[in-house]
Write a structure and sequence with these properties.
Elements (H helix, E strand, L loop, with lengths): L1 E5 L7 H10 L14 E4 L5 H12 L3 E6 L2 H13 L4 E5 L5 H13 L5 E4 L15 H29 L3 E6 L15 H20 L4 E8 L5 H9 L1 H9 L13 H8 L10 E4 L7
Parallel strand pairs: 2-3, 2-5, 3-4, 5-6, 6-7, 7-8
Antiparallel strand pairs: 1-4
Helix pairs in contact: 2-9, 4-5, 5-6, 7-8
């Protein structure tokens, strides 16, 4: 397991300024400040994870970035450093429960975690139910669901121990509410539906600790996996886009402001919520 800490060349004025304002008079916009906070995000080096990490960094938080690929982790860490944030890089495969646990415990050794985004996940396969192997079923549930449980248990458990509250954001999917047309791998829908209910149950259990737990359900976004699906299943992707009332897929950066909201004091009275961001796809 590889752990790296990337520090900015110089500390910007944002942290001190935001903390000063926060201690005096808190306006509406001030409640979105994340100065002095630390984020842990799984799958934070590319796609939706990268954009959420950058947005939360822009709002003032330092970040623990985790993922499988060293190159993309380093690139995102460099982007965090350029905006004056400190980025800790921990490489690991979250489809392997033992490795996921090791990454979480390594993250806690770098300092307290105030915000957790359980973002890692994927469909990975396109096979009918009757042909899917038990091995693939378990692997995908471990990636999407077990990793969410483990990170929540370990990092959220540390929040309870610290007694300072916290924010947990689980990235589910509209596929946890519907069945996608024309594509297999129903372990994805199943695991994302479970993430939604796990979010609700954990929110109920941990509200007394000042920890909010909410879920984001993205619709169609042209991330790298979906670009691959578009090449392999162009009719499916075109059909999906044609059913979006807003007429197009979302851009990954569209998730950033929502993540900042859920991570900040602006959402302090929201917990157990499932927020859909899909251009209206689920309205039909």
């Amino acid at each position: 397991m590889l752990v790296k800490v990337r520090k900015p060349n110089q500390q910007g004025w944002f942290d001190e300024q935001a903390l000063f304002i926060r201690n005096c008079v808190m306006s509406v916009l001030d409640r979105f400040s994340l100065a002095g906070k630390r984020l842990f995000i799984s799958g934070g080096s590319r796609g939706l994870g990268r954009e959420m990490a950058l947005a939360i960094g822009e709002a003032g938080a330092d970040v623990v970035l985790t993922g499988r690929t060293a190159e993309s982790l380093e690139q995102t860490a460099a982007a965090m450093e350029a905006m004056g944030r400190t980025a800790v890089v921990i490489q690991g495969d979250f489809s392997k429960p033992d490795e996921c646990e090791s990454v979480c415990r390594a993250a806690l050794e770098t300092g307290p975690i105030d915000i957790v985004i359980n973002n890692v996940g994927g469909r990975l396969i396109d096979v009918p139910i009757e042909e899917q192997s038990l091995e693939d079923w378990q692997r995908i549930l471990d990636l999407n669901l077990t990793s969410t449980f483990q990170c929540t248990k370990i990092l959220g458990g540390a929040m309870i121990g610290a007694a300072n509250g916290g924010r947990i954001i689980n990235v589910a999917s509209i596929s946890g509410m519907i069945a996608n047309r024309g594509i297999g791998g129903r372990s994805y829908e199943t695991s994302k539906a479970a993430v939604i209910q796990f979010t609700r149950a954990t929110a109920a259990d941990w509200a007394a600790h000042g920890i909010t737990v909410n879920a984001i359900c993205p619709g169609g976004f042209m991330t790298e996996p979906n670009q691959r699906w578009a090449k392999e299943n162009p009719d499916v992707i075109a059909g999906f886009e044609g059913q979006i009332p807003m007429g197009k897929f979302g851009e990954p950066e569209d998730l950033g402001p929502l993540a900042v909201y859920l991570a900040s004091d602006a959402s302090r009275y929201m917990t157990g919520a499932t927020l859909v961001i899909d251009g209206g796809y689920t309205l039909w």
